[in-house]
Amino acid sequence: MSYYALDLMRSELERTLAAVPEGTFKHVRCFGLHGTYDDGLEWLQKKENASRSKVVLSLGSSIGNFTRPEAAAFVKQFAEILSPSDRLLFGVDACQEPEKVYHAYNDSEGITNEFTLNGLKHANKLLGHTAFDLADWEAIGHYDEQDGRHQAFVSPKRDVRVEGVLVQAGEKIRIEESYKYSPAQAQELWQASNVIEGASWTNHTGSYSEFSPTIKVWIYIYIETILIYTRASHAEQAVCNVRNGP
């Protein structure tokens, strides 16, 4: 088995792959792919890869950083180039409890806010000068209950000019957003992506899920009991057991 890690940052690929040098695993070899999602799609379509059995993994719930229509388009573009025997496995944040989500992104130690402000530091690096004085800015988090998403903003504490543009104190600049998916919203996502939910696994609170959509055929795998289900009725029961407990 070959594992290919796709990442935009070459140094991070080299760092993580150095932790699993050749010979670490008996049956798995690890490689790096330096590029974007589009580069990954192009790589998957190469003749030498198209004929191989594949599983596309996205376990860090990065799909939540897309809007819901964008997320469906993202999944669909992979589904369109894979064969029915290939698999997808996506991690999705399912928690939609306002207080819990808010505090997950706005922790008491300020780690997430520091991460958000680091984006301004990186912008300074790309621009080659200090366009953003970090002392003038703060990170703000907000959970949008209506749309089921958390949003992160940066906002100046006083009026500032950035590259000649006035940004007034308190004005919010959105940095990222993270959508959460209820079971019904997850189903809508797969339907819009033209895939079928083959199996799903959740943590004990149901706040995080792993989904394995299939391309065109109904095949269900319920790993927790080491059983393979090939009938829809049995598979639906297996998914129900995972979500709601035995």
Description:
The protein is built from eight helices and 13 strands. The chain is α+β, with helices and mostly antiparallel strands. It folds into two domains: 122 residues, 3-Layer(aba) Sandwich (Rossmann fold), CATH 3.40.50; 80 residues, no CATH class. It has a four-stranded mixed beta sheet with strand order 3-4-11-10. Strands 5-6-9 form a three-stranded antiparallel beta sheet. The protein has a two-stranded parallel ribbon with strand order 1-2. The relative contact order is 0.12.
In short:
This protein has 246 residues and is of the alpha+beta class. The protein is 33% helix and 29% strand.
Question: What fraction of residues sit in β-strands?
Answer: 25-35%
Looking across the biggest beta sheet, what order are the strands in?
Answer: 3-4-11-10
Any guess at the CATH architecture of the largest domain? 3-Layer(aba) Sandwich
Mean pLDDT: 85
Q: How many strand elements?
A: 13
Largest sheet: 4 strands, mixed
SSE topology:
Elements: E1 2-7, H1 10-18, E2 29-34, H2 37-44, H3 47-50, E3 55-58, H4 68-79, E4 87-93, H5 98-105, H6 111-127, E5 137-144, E6 149-156, E7 160-162, E8 165-167, E9 173-179, H7 183-192, E10 196-202, E11 208-214, E12 220-222, E13 227-229, H8 232-244
Parallel strand pairs: 1-2, 3-4
Antiparallel strand pairs: 4-11, 5-6, 6-9, 7-8, 10-11, 12-13
Helix pairs in contact: 4-7
